[in-house]
Specification:
This protein is mostly helical. It contains 18 helices and three strands. 39% of the residues are buried.
Length: 454
Amino acid sequence: MARYDYAQAACPLIDRLAETCKQEFPINPELYTKYDVKRGLRDLNGKGVLAGLTNIGNVVASKTVDGVSVPCDGKLYYRGIDVEELVAGFIADDRLGFEETVYLLLFGQLPSAQELADFSGLLAELRNLPAIFTRDVIMKAPSDNMMNTLAKCVLALYSYDSAANDISVPNVLRQCLSLISLFPMISVYGYQAYHFKAGQSLIIRQPDKKLSLAENILYMLREDGKFTPLEAKLLDMALVLHAEHGGGNNSTFTVHVVSSSGTDTYSAIAAALGSLKGPKHGGANIKVCQMFDDLMEHVKDWEDEDALREYLRSLLHKEGFDHSGLIYGMGHAVYSISDPRARVFKSFVQKLSVEKNREKEYELYARVERLASEVIASERKIYKGVCANVDFYSGFVYRMLGLPEELFTPIFAIARISGWSAHRIEELINSNKIIRPAYKAIVDPRVYIPMSER
């Protein structure tokens, strides 16, 4: 019998099979209403279905007035503390706050000065990859996607951990603290490795134990290792604002689901990275930047609000940019009136734009934010208001900081792993059941037909 040449037949065969999938897989949307299925674990108004309890993060976007839920300015709480008050405290003390935020999320309380110093020192000591890991794992077969590099390296670290499968709280905490410390190194080194393969210079700089996590990102990434205090504060603030967002966001819920199976920390965090990589989740800020690049190409006068409105309408009608029908950075699954993270970010973005001589660009962002809400309200029937989310400004900040686009989503992961870690520990302590929601089967019974009769 002749050997079948799969390589030669792969394209047309796979194309035909894919068409079969497209014909057989679709589900009539009306059936979701018929069977009262909350598609995407959301009700008809887009509100998430309660699937668990958490002490870690709380996202508030509505309040009850006379027994009716009405939208309100968004609020985000870390362990019961308003994140805006948390950031205000860091600003008042003129200090960086991400390490303190990690402590708060993991241990449920604000540290004393000594506790924070000890904890920051522990994170600095853990910022140390295994021997030859950089060469054997990061440098070999580098990927053009740093989220894949992060996931690959996280799974590889399993092999270097003699207690990898121990899911006791002390051991899981050790593993999580190690990953929190190592994510910046892996992300920056992965970026450098890929560009070295592409013929560019290679810069592998060891982190400085005297620097914070945010400062070390800039120090390791930049050829001269230099940065301004404002640059460090903005990156640190970005990390604080992205560190946690309740148990229902896609990547954190993934951590709960995977952790409930009893698997190891490395598998749970790798799964979360796969979730965050998606453009509907962690990759949204890149889309915002690309959308603004396209806008600036098509609208030459950035102060012409009629031209800007027309451009935004073209996006909604799938006539512009990527033809998705979306204005990226506008709207959120929970917030409707305002995203507190965007509120905090906005004033500091303006300060950085002055330092970087990019005030005109900032003004364009602010103008589009205002006009987009108007255009969406006039063009779409929506059940709630639309506000700018944190992704609207974060990509612009990263560009002003000189961060490469390949690191935008890894920066999100560097921040969010602190929340993921807290939720993993919470799941292991509080749950003894695997998370298993039900799906309604809608296929009718069919009679099996033997091969000889088909």
